[in-house]
Amino acid sequence: MQQPLDPQEIPPGCPAHENVPLYGPSFGADPDSHYAHLRSFGMSAPVDIAPDVEVELVTSYDAALYVLQNPASFVRDSRRWNALNEGRVPADSPALPMMSYRPNALFSDGAAHARLRQAVTDSLSTVNELQLVRQTQQSADYLISRFGSEPRGQAELMSEYAQPLPLLVFSDLFGCPPEIGDRVIAGISGIFEGTPGADEVLGGALTELIALKRRRPADDLTTRLMEHQAQLSDEEVLHQLVTLLSGGTAPLTATIGSSSALYLGEEWQTGLPVEDAVAQSLWNYAPIANYAAHYPVHDVELGGRTLRANDPVLISFAAANTDPKLTEHRRQLSAKAHLAFGAGPHACPAKDPAFMIAVTAVETLLNRLPDIEMRVPFRTLAWAPSPWSRSLVTLPVRFSPRTQPAPAPGHTQPGAASQQGPSAGQPSGSHGSQPQGSAAQQHKGGLFSRFLAWTRGE
């Protein structure tokens, strides 16, 4: 680990003499040094999460657990936010889309939270694990078919694999028809890329999806949410779907990327299973790095610092997971004791399916391209400079081009990690073999339309 920032070496006038800025190229290039410096303040420290947006950042593992597991003193409803209510947050702040109140389980407390979360967890619990593995494998096979047999024998895994794979799986889980699935993927991708109007694209697509499921219920996650005994309104269903998409796809992209890079990296011990790479990635490169704003309902003393009522307290999952005080007994902890999925009443309700998707995605990649390797050392990979997430910018790889067609949907390729099968929600018997580079790639429409056409052998 690099040495913490020395205040004596910080140029006069630098914002770090006041609050440490947790954004920009300097932070993105070396977040660990920033976290090490922040630990000198105690269990938490004041930072600017965006220009002119001050929050208290919890960097201690024990303190993070205390906040996450203490809903009586720390609530999630950001309508309490002092600075926002007093007009001290810039109207165009990049922190607002991440921290502003939305009527979903993430920003609710008490009975309202319990009702929304129960609908989500009950609906997720009906997802069949074997079907989810098959859906992930099928999505992975399709994406690999797009780059795996090109003569160049090279790919950029973040944009060509890790980013689209969760979007395909979720669109399938939600029961999206092709055109709506295309717009869901375009909307959520646009939100994370900062594309103007992406919110409206996603909202419009999900509104149409909900209206469709009202007319024609089906065996999918959207219908289960709508039919849950909590009797969610259409607006509530929409906001829970948005939460599942935004809270599920981007962290999965980051985890698939960093886990693949770890496994292919120069320091990975040969013979260790993919599960170990995913677990290590969640410990050391928490995909949601700094998030989960809590608001004390009264002043709270924490590690010698006073957390003022209704001032935002963010959890640094990245810093908590790498807390030096944890190092000495981390080996005694469960491999799942990391905080990448949160903890307490607002812990990720889909942590087991998320882990399964990530493992399956990496295993399928390794099985389909057995000699795949990175084109650069792991230590030279660039990370996105976002304070909210820890995700690779690119993951350049090379491999021997495939000399055989992509595996037909519903069939097992020799050496595959798990059995293939039809994807949930797809027409039974509609799958057929389809050589890579044929009509499926020429099919008009967006990513999801082309994927569904491929599963049908078109």
From TrEMBL:
InterPro entries the UniProt entry points to: Cyt_P450_B, Cyt_P450_CS, Cyt_P450_sf
Top-level lineage group: Bacteria
Chain segments carrying region Disordered: 400-444
SUPFAM superfamilies: Cytochrome P450
Residue stretches of biased makeup (Low complexity): 413-443
Family, similarity comment: Belongs to the cytochrome P450 family.
Stated name of the protein: Cytochrome P450
